[in-house]
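User: Teach me something about this protein's shape.
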Amino acid sequence: MFCAPRDIQAQEAFTLQGHGGPVKGISVRSDGDILTASFDNSVGFWTDGAPRWFDGHEAAVNAVVPVGQRMAVSAGDDYTLRLWDLESGQGAVFGRHNAKIMRLAAAPDGTRVASASWDRTAVIWPLDGSTPVTLEGHANTVSDVSFSPDGARVYTVSSDGTVRLWDAETGAFLRRIVSHGFGINTVIVAPDESWLAYGAVDGGTRVVSLPDGAEIADLTADRRPVLAMAHHLDSNRIAVGDAQGYIMMVDTDAWRIADDFRAAAAGPVWALSFSPDGRNIHAGGISDVVHSWPVDALDRAVQMTGTERSFLKNPELMSNGERQFQRKCSICHTLGPDSKRRAGPTLHGLFGRPAGSIEGYIYSETLNTADIVWSEETIDLLFDKGPDHYIPGSKMPMQRITGAQDRADLISFLREATGP
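Assistant: First, the predicted structure itself:
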């Protein structure tokens, strides 16, 4: 593992290794410390390249943002927002949506956080515990959210293809800024609120003026969808990440593409953040590893490692049972004794093991109290009915294997692969 100390983090390429699943969110504090959110259900807090792990979410963590001097907020697929004390490591739920939460934004004064959710709402959460403000009106999932520079307004984007502006105090809808025609995934608002940039499902990367929404630039690179954006004011750069593994650098002075770097051999790029001085771009994607590259040396940068995940293995090289495991189980579970910070516990020694019995893994209350012993019969029922019906309330994702032979082949593979 190569991790750079803080004094050279903005000068050289480095990696942060330790997560057990794809990295979905990255934020950087003003002192250069890095916060990461991962599919492994955890938040990483990296100081001088060394992590501290904050566990508590019951599903993938999609976003994390610093607030104030010592706090952070995270959110994810378990519908919850959690507030963390970065010094003590203590955290607690302080907000909840009715569906997955995809993005977070912190108000400039650090007193509020806004969340964007698949329940078609964005919510502004005061950190003092006072009444949250709900923004309702999008016709589909809300993908991203951003405060205005003074914190008085909030911009939201949605898979309904619109960018909307709201009053942050009252939640009143002010106006529609953009109607794109395809779903919009991510948004950035200029520090002086003179422009807004957004990335869309159809690959559209566009910039419009504020407040009128007139188009300034179309930087679409014919790659879809755009998944992440980051902006650094002093460097006059916007970084754009897409599903095909590219990071495009946009010069905001000339509104032109300054660099176009194939960051991952197998996309996507889900998360981007600049170092405080703008000299490095940090990226997360399908790899378990955070990569950081000097912005001025992207033409010599080495691609992300660990992007050839097991579930992307050529199906012709696997038995049907292994193929079922790789597609349905491998991103959450390992087969060896070490769980490796995955979203689910190791399957080593699975047969004959009571559910919820791996020491050190944080199970849902449902599995902690379940009267289930894993066997050929119970594993078959799990995938025949689906975890949401067989063990309602568990953290297992909702999925089924409908073919009886496919289930039998999976069980046969697991019987051999998980043995002592």
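Now, about its shape. The first strand starts at residue 14 and ends at 16. Residues 404-417 form the longest helix (14 residues). If you'd like, I can walk through any region in more detail.
User: That's plenty for now, thanks!
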